[in-house]
Amino acid sequence: MKSFQTKPYMLKNEEGQFLQSLGALVSIKATSEQTGDVFNLFEVSCLPDYATPLLIHYTEDVAIYVLEGELTLFWGSEKKEATSGSFIYQPRGTLHGFRVESSTAARILYMTIPAGFDRFVAEQEQTVQPSEPEMDAARYKIEILGPLPE
Fold first, then answer.
1. pLDDT at residue 26 in the model
2. The whole model's pTM is what?
């Protein structure tokens, strides 16, 4: 595994590369290049009623920290509630997704280990013609299985 970059950096609030990905506003705080392919870090803002698809990351572990708002998490058939201050860890291979259940937007820190997910996020922003997200995700070893259960 590569080591962290040798040059420190800092981003202030509202700094970073901002992209739209799968309907959420994403700020990339740590790219693959900046961390020597060790991890990615994103700040993600999701409007009320936002929902990810039900999916599986096969090459990344995912860590989520809820900064604001409320999420309903799905792990296979399990359903959990997460509020501000909650931490979630999802090992690779875990069927998962989340929905914003609060009447206000949610803001989360989203980390993937190892790095590489930033390339998928950037590719989604750059796609001129909407394509099948399942096909795009498959190239990054992510399987999209459909909408979340109710």
1. 92
2. 0.87
